[in-house]
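Justification of resources, computational component.

The compute hours requested in this renewal are based largely on the per-chain cost of generating structure records like the one below. Each record pairs the submitted sequence with a full structure-token output. That output is archived, and it is also reused by downstream analysis tasks.
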Amino acid sequence: GTVYLTFDDGPSDNTYSILSYLEQYNVKATFFVVPNRSEGCYAKLKAIAAAGHSIGVHSASHVYKDIYSSVDAYLDDFHEAWDIIYDATGIKTEIFRFPGGSVNDFNTETRDEIIQEMTRRGFRYYDWNLSAEDAAKKSPSASTIVEGITSYSAQKKHGVVLMHDSAHCKTTVEALPALIDTLREQGFDFAPLDRTVRQVSFHYRSASNQS
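The structure output for this chain reads:
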């Protein structure tokens, strides 16, 4: 099977450390970013792209109540993030992840129309079926992250792992070596997401550890 490691909410102070571990273990991953137009953000986006990882849109603002207030509001936010990625890297990304996942309490009224419009425009979204559960302000320990993911991954042939590239997620970075080693021991290969990869979506069930 194949595992797709994904990192939401970056770039952050942890981005270069994540990239270093991924390079050390020869793993390609996917970064669903919340970019801005600062020089530091542009430099990190360029580093992600130069290392051969996928970049997708997560959000420009990550403010749920505003993003999901209407289809146009979502599209405006998406376009700002997409444009920054393109400006920084030249990549015309075709993948994205909804803030909070495709099913959340803020997009009940707009989700179907947003999905239809984004699909019409040629974009594909990815939820997750494995999670580091690291979005809370107090991150779990590195060993807890590894155990939480690998105790479920053995049951899957196609795993999309949710992790966070946020400044407070130090233990997520620390977990990467053992996580990669254990997933390889379970027989998994690693790959970055692109729109040809089979979609993982929530299908209107509840999602844990919203991103």
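Confidence is low (pLDDT under 50) at residues 204-209. The longest helix spans residues 71-89.
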